[in-house]
Amino acid sequence: MKVLFRLGVAGAALAAGLGVAAPASAAVTYDPKTMKGFAGSGDVRKAFGWTEAQLAAKTPALEFVHGFWLDGNFSVGCGKVTFPATYRLEAGYMQLRHAAVVDSGRAAATGYARKVTGFWITGASMGVSGTAQPPQLGQACPGGRKGKVTKMTKVSQKRGWGLNVVSGNDGRRLAGG
Q1: Is pLDDT above 80 for 17?
Q2: Which of 14, 54, 119, 172 could lock onto 47 through a cystine, CB 3.0 to 4.6 A?
Q3: Which domain holds residue 51?
């Protein structure tokens, strides 16, 4: 029998989750448009390297966060030197509501056991976003280069997102695109 326990969503954990490289598993089902899905306990345990007991102990404080960003790729000119540069133009995150799914089966010698089997992610509860500008013409050249920006041309841009799980100050990416 499966029982849902509603967990609160807490803390601003953007920095902990956005910069993490590879997702833990392709088995996580998540729709970035609706911000709903399911993350199995194995995916969360694998992301942190936890045992079942560690996951059970940390479940009440877990947070799920949807991070999003827009990166712009530019050709920057500083005098006679031109070089590529990428700037994060938009970034933000949404804290996600979630519920732990627990197996309430009977354990032989110890009575009832509660094994966490996964997490239903049920949508956004709140969020924060911001924008930034790359260096403008006449401003100091980026990256410690001497001189001023003489040319700034946007070459391309790419949007991205990540589903992150956060425990304290430690965030891990579960899925992304």
Answers
A1: no
A2: 172
A3: 2-176
